[in-house]
Specification:
The structure is a homodimer.
Chain A lengths: L7 H11 L8 E4 L4 E5 L9 H10 L3 H6 L1 E4 L3 H12 L4 E4 L6 H9 L3 E3 L5 H15 L2 E2 L6 H7 L1 H9 L5 E5 L4 H10 L4 E7 L4 H8 L21 H6 L4 E5 L1 H13 L11 H7 L8 E5 L6 H9 L2
Parallel strand pairs in A: 2-10, 3-4, 3-6, 4-5, 7-8, 7-10, 8-9
Antiparallel strand pairs in A: 1-2
Helix pairs in contact in A: 1-2, 1-7, 1-9, 2-4, 2-7, 4-5, 7-9, 8-9, 12-13
Chain lengths: 308, 308
């Protein structure tokens, strides 16, 4: 039976489950941006991803925990699963591929996970994942197409409802759709939730156009958003959501703006919502921009900051 | 008559005066740094300087406000005075010099101040300041050697006392000594306050050694700390303070660390206290590192991030 989409109650349950093991991230006000910034880059593991991973890990049975978990990711989800597994005393195996960032491999191992690097590329990594899952009986922690992962991400929405009750628009960067689905589930009936994708990474747009998860080949500088498809649950939850596309140049501009004016060291993915807001493509009064993560290599950041 | 050093009561009065016109900046916890970070880079105008400037401006008489204020600075103090003067409805004239950063000139003008660029270098700018002050009758807003400016900066200490009551060490970057003096005045009897200077910018060390403000020629990459001397009041307040020196390489390392691990886009001066903590030169348990400011040109940040 396919999983059902999570409800607002599920999001509230996720908040209770997470408790104080993660941060209630600060909401900063930027006068120059004329918006408030939900700073998920300060979340444990450097992105919102730890919310969903910890909610998922916390709900495993003792037997599932004993068998451990498995995930595929060369980015923020890898660190989040490693962190959450350690917090729940479960073993984590993360499938990456050759050429994955040394820094992210090291960070994932730093949280105590085993990293599998047998695959040569993302496609063969997915085959490797299926094989390892079969062999080990580990529970898969999907990065976005899982009701517990979505409900965990939705706790961002509950915090916004309390910290910015007057917000009339919440702008969210979208990769596979987990974060925006969670926020939509939590507060979408009361507040406009706006999904932002790079023009070169359109999993949600393509999925909604075709009415089902649709493979894309994303190439955005916002690597954290480069999901190969949007999840079935996100497509269901977001079927009527307001959507905006941004260019990579707009993302780079927003990255520099957040650095220079808001003093935030975010990753390119984390700047996508700010890019949409700065581009003038969204008409709103009391706006919250979600800065979803901050895991970027210093060399990458240096290159973006160097080009004016 | 020379001004007397401010008291804790003066700091509490400064907090009431400032009210909610400035931010209570967040205190973030960094597990990798094993310290809490007092994030003054998120303060209005991008540094703690607005606290002292606003306290000073708020206490001017109607006549003094009508005549306006004058300041000398090519950095954070310039923006702080411009901001505070606008908040109090006073005219601000800021003396800089040719070669000052275009970005900082623009930011200062952006807050509504007039910038005077007649001087060719810092030394002649000080002469220009004296001449203009004489001609115009404007009130000087000193960047650090003023009891109201020090008391304003001390409000950082009051916030730390409430938000980190268990802290046993507060580490503070030092230029002319205003911030560290304010924090020492606010909480120095209860908490260790540790003053950090670059080895190449030692106004406080030199002043304490000679028992009076002593000219130095600072050359640190932490330009925000490059004061040409420490104030008389800071030397009096800090005469027994614990002091640590850091190298420019340690500052650059801390700058990258705060970027990559704490996701903070601080300026080099703002990383000096973190540099002292990371270097292992301070033995403490529950440590607060003050990140004093975040005004850095993207090009400068890019260069520091590029060099591993």
């Amino acid at each position: 039976m396919a999983d059902a989409a999570p409800t607002r109650d599920d999001v509230e349950r996720a908040r209770a489950t997470i408790g104080d093991r993660l941060l209630r991230t600060p909401l900063l006000t930027s006068r120059t941006l004329d918006a408030r910034l939900k700073c998920e880059l300060f979340q444990r593991t450097g992105s919102f991803k730890s919310r969903g991973a910890l909610n998922k890990l916390s709900r495993l049975t003792a037997q599932e925990k004993a068998r451990g978990v498995i995930a595929i990711s060369a980015g923020n989800h890898a660190q989040a699963v490693a962190f959450a597994a350690a917090a729940e005393g479960a073993d984590a195996l993360v499938v990456m591929w050759q050429g994955a960032s040394e820094q992210k491999i090291a960070a994932t191992r730093g949280y105590g996970a085993t990293v599998d690097l047998e695959a040569h590329d993302p496609a063969s990594a997915f085959e490797r994942l299926a094989q390892l899952q079969e062999e080990t009986g580990r529970t898969l922690v999907h990065p976005f197409d899982d009701p517990l992962v979505i409900a965990g991400a939705g706790t961002v929405g509950l915090e916004l409802e309390e910290d910015a009750p007057d917000a009339d628009a919440v702008i969210v960067p979208v990769g596979g759709g987990g974060l925006v689905s969670g926020i939509q589930t939590a507060i979408g009936t009361r507040t406009r939730v706006i999904a932002v994708e790079p023009e070169t990474s359109t999993a949600l747009h393509s999925g909604l156009e075709h009415g089902e998860p649709t493979p894309v080949t994303p190439t955005s500088i916002a690597d954290g958003l480069n999901a190969p498809f949007a999840g079935r649950l996100p497509l269901e939850i977001c079927k009527d959501i307001e959507r905006v596309l941004v260019t990579d140049d707009e993302i780079k501009h927003a990255f520099r703006f957040l650095y220079e004016r808001a003093k935030l060291a975010c990753e390119p993915a984390g700047a996508a919502a700010a890019a949409a807001w700065l581009s003038g493509k969204i008409d709103a009064e009391n706006t919250v921009v979600v800065v979803s993560g901050g895991n970027v290599a210093a060399q990458t950041a240096s290159a973006i900051l160097a080009a004016p």
